[in-house]
Amino acid sequence: MHCPFCRHPDSRVIDSRTADDGLSIRRRRQCPECGRRFTTTETASLTVIKRSGVVEPFSREKVMSGVRKACQGRPVTDADLALLAQQVEESVRSSGVAQFDANEIGLAILPHLRELDEVAFLRFASVYQAFESLADFETAIEELRAHPATGSLESVPRPDASEE
């Protein structure tokens, strides 16, 4: 690690601590040449390969914006989306692989989104599971009914037709 002050090619680690719920390491370093101290943050890189072949770093913000579209008009808050993005990142990192296709990230979102909101799940799944017909929607709905998600909004009361 080069010293940011004198550019000496070495530094000594004085202290190491985990940060961001264990996703990164904060190191306090000291330069043996000039004696000044500085802090570095180390994270394991996670990259996404887009359909076009472009490689870019994983972004929770992109996960949130993609899911936000599926949640439009649903009772889902920004805090819910932030938690979902964190859960997706944690599940992707736990696989031990550093590089993923964008489609794999989309598929990793599905189980977390199903727990959050089943309607948003169907919207999102129709893209990432490439639904081609109404039969694909019907199959997905039958699967949801057969195995309801524990945190779903299924218990939210729906207005009767007579109330409309």
TrEMBL record:
The keyword Repressor applies. It comes from the Bacteria. Residues 46-136 form the ATP-cone domain. The keyword ATP-binding applies. Its cofactor is Zn(2+). Negatively regulates transcription of bacterial ribonucleotide reductase nrd genes and operons by binding to NrdR-boxes. Belongs to the NrdR family. This is Transcriptional repressor NrdR. The gene is nrdR.
